[in-house]
Design goal:
The chain is of the alpha+beta class. The chain is built from ten helices and 21 strands. Strand 7, helix 6 and strand 8 form a beta-alpha-beta unit. The structure holds adenosine-5'-diphosphate (ADP) and magnesium ion. The site of adenosine-5'-diphosphate (ADP) has 11 residues, from strand 2 and helix 1.
C-alpha cells in the first residue's frame, strides 16, 4: 500500500519561475487522483516531483511514512506513462514489454510470466509477436501500459496519456484505464488538462492553478460546491455563467443588476450579510436555468440569440442586459426555436455568489 504525501512543496525553475507554491497534497492508498488545470500550470512538474524526476526546491515528499524527498526515481517503484509512448520499433510487443526487466537481469521465466499476465490483463495476448508498426494507436497505448505493469509498480503515474488519441479511442481508453485501476489496486495519479476526462475518471480531483491547489475533492464536490471563481469556471461544460451583481441592501435577500432581481436562499443571504465584500458575482450553470414557452413564477422574457442542437442537449444563448447567458436543456423538453417567446428564471437554490475581490465562494468564506 502507498499513501503519497506532499508537504509544503515548492518548486522553482528560476527565481522568477515559481511553479509550485507551498502545496500540500495527500493521495490515499489505491486512490485514483486526477491533477487537472490549464496548460503550463505545473501539473507535470507536480507529477515529476512525485516520481522523483524533479527534486523539490523546498518541502517534503512521503510514500507512506517514509520520506522520499531525495530518493531517486528507480527506488520509488513508480511507473510512469506519458503522452508519447515511444516503443522500440524493431522489437515485437513481447520484447518491448519485457525490455526493462531484461536490462534489470531478471530471470527469463519470470519475465515471460509477467509479460503474459500483463498482456492478458490488457487484452493484447494475441499481439505479442507483432511489431509496433503493425498495431493501432490504442493497441500501442496498451503495450505502453503493459511495459509499466510488468514492473509491479507500487504507484502508477500518468501524464496526459490519451492526448494523442482520437476522440472515440480516448473515451474507450478512459474506461480501460479505470478498469485496470480496479484490477491492479494500486495508488494512481493521472494528469490531464481536460476537465471532462478528470470528472469521468477520478476518485478525487485536484485542481491546480497559479501554483496552488484551488480545490481538492470528488467530482461531485467540485461540481456542486466550487471554492472559488476559478474552479466554478473550470469544472463543468458548458461553462458556468457569471454576472456582476449588487446586493439589495434594503431587503438583503436579493441581488440585482440592470432591471433584474434574483432571490437568494436564506443561507446565502445570511452569509452575504456577514461578508466584508460589496462586489459580488452571481454564478449559475447553463443546465440549471429554467426555460418555458409561457411565463412561470419569477420568470422574465428573453430573446434567444443562438440555438444549438447537440443531440441529447440543446444549448441556447440569450442576452441579459449586455451579458450573454448560456442555457442547456434536454432536447425535446421544450422545443425552443429562434425568435419564439421564451421565459427563463434562475432557481435560487442553484445560484452561487462569489466575492469579486477574493474570488471566493461566499458560502465558504471564513
Ligand atoms: N525544466 C524546466 N525549466 C524551466 N522551466 C520549466 C521546466 N519545466 C517546466 N517549466 C515551466 O514550469 C511551468 C509549468 O510547467 P509544467 O509542469 O510542464 O506545466 P503543465 O504540465 O501543467 O502544462 C511552465 O511555465 C514551464 O515553462
Ligand atoms: Mg504537462
Amino acid at each position: 500500500m502507498v499513501v503519497i504525501k506532499l508537504e509544503k512543496v515548492n518548486k522553482k525553475f528560476a527565481p522568477d519561475v515559481h511553479v509550485l507554491k507551498d502545496i500540500d497534497l495527500e493521495i490515499k492508498d489505491k486512490e485514483f487522483m486526477v491533477l487537472v488545470g490549464p496548460s503550463g500550470c505545473g501539473k507535470s512538474t507536480c507529477l515529476n516531483v512525485i516520481a522523483g524526476l524533479e527534486y523539490v526546491t523546498d518541502g517534503r515528499v512521503f510514500f507512506d511514512d517514509v520520506e522520499v524527498t531525495h530518493v531517486p526515481p528507480k527506488e520509488r517503484r513508480v511507473a510512469m506513462v506519458f503522452q508519447s509512448y515511444a516503443l522500440y520499433p524493431h522489437m515485437n510487443v513481447r520484447e518491448n514489454m519485457g525490455f526493462a526487466l531484461k536490462i534489470d537481469k531478471m530471470d527469463k521465466e519470470e519475465i515471460t510470466r509477467r509479460v503474459k499476465s500483463a498482456a492478458e490483463l490488457l487484452g493484447i495476448g494475441e499481439l505479442l509477436d507483432r511489431k509496433p508498426g503493425e498495431l493501432s494507436g490504442g493497441q500501442r497505448q496498451r503495450v505502453a501500459l503493459g511495459r509499466s505493469i510488468v514492473r509491479n509498480p507500487t504507484v502508477f503515474l500518468f501524464d496526459e496519456p490519451l492526448s494523442n488519441l482520437d476522440a472515440k479511442l480516448r473515451i474507450q481508453m478512459r474506461g480501460e484505464i479505470i478498469k485496470l485501476q480496479k484490477q491492479l489496486k494500486i495508488t494512481q495519479v493521472y494528469v490531464t488538462h481536460d476537465q471532462v476526462e478528470a470528472m469521468s475518471m477520478a476518485d478525487r480531483i485536484a485542481i491546480l492553478n497559479d501554483g496552488k491547489f484551488q480545490q481538492i475533492g470528488t467530482p461531485t464536490e467540485v461540481y456542486n460546491t466550487p471554492n472559488n471563481l476559478f474552479v466554478a469556471g473550470f469544472i463543468g461544460s458548458p461553462t458556468m455563467n457569471f454576472i456582476d451583481v449588487r446586493l439589495n441592501e434594503r431587503t438583503g435577500d436579493t441581488v440585482e443588476f440592470a432591471d433584474f432581481t434574483f432571490e437568494l436562499t436564506n443561507q446565502l443571504a445570511e452569509k452575504i450579510k456577514n461578508s466584508p465584500s460589496t462586489q459580488l458575482v452571481l454564478g449559475i450553470r447553463p443546465e440549471h436555468i429554467k426555460i418555458t414557452p409561457e411565463p412561470h413564477e419569477k420568470s422574465f422574457e428573453v430573446d434567444l440569440s443562438v440555438v444549438e442542437y447537440l443531440g441529447p442537449e440543446t444549448l441556447v444563448r440569450f442576452e441579459l442586459s449586455e451579458n450573454i447567458v448560456a442555457l442547456a436543456a434536454p432536447t425535446g423538453y421544450y422545443p425552443v426555436k429562434m425568435g419564439e417567446k421564451s421565459f427563463v428564471s434562475f432557481p435560487k437554490e442553484k445560484i452561487y455568489i462569489f466575492n469579486k475581490d477574493t474570488t471566493q465562494n461566499i458560502l465558504y468564506e471564513a
